[in-house]
Design goal:
With about 130 residues, this protein is of the alpha/beta class. The chain contains six helices and six strands; from the N terminus they run βαββαβααβαβα. The protein has a single domain, classed as Rossmann fold, CATH 3.40.50. The strands form two sheets. A four-stranded parallel β-sheet has the order 4-1-5-6, with helices on both faces. Strands 2-3 form a two-stranded antiparallel ribbon. The longest helix has 16 residues. It starts with a strand and ends with a helix. The model has no long low-confidence stretch (mean pLDDT about 90).
Length: about 130
Amino acid sequence: MKLVYVAHPYGGDEKNAQAVKQIIEDLTEGSHPLLANHTIIAMHTPDGIPSIELLQAVYVSPIHQQGFMYEGTPYLAGLQKCLELLRRCDVLLLCGDWQNSKGCLAEFGFAMARKMPIVFENINNYYELI
């Protein structure tokens, strides 16, 4: 079973936490549009990821794991914890407006450096990068 790290902008905004909760619920229930295809395109995974693997995955949200510490923790210390959590995962899933989030960009760079499979909630993000 894959462990999937769900990256999404946060900034202490509870609406972002709700958005991630909904994404994870949709993925685990099989209703997320990402699962519509048999194979999901992923960076560093030439053959993609079978959608069944994401349907059966365990999802980890750093927002839900550590968001309660957002206000009281120095930014870099919080980011370090997020990257440690990401290091233990099998796949990075980038969601929302991740391209405009310092934290998501750091997670993206970390995953790229480790050649981790990276899945984009919005497939157009993938095509923009290649």
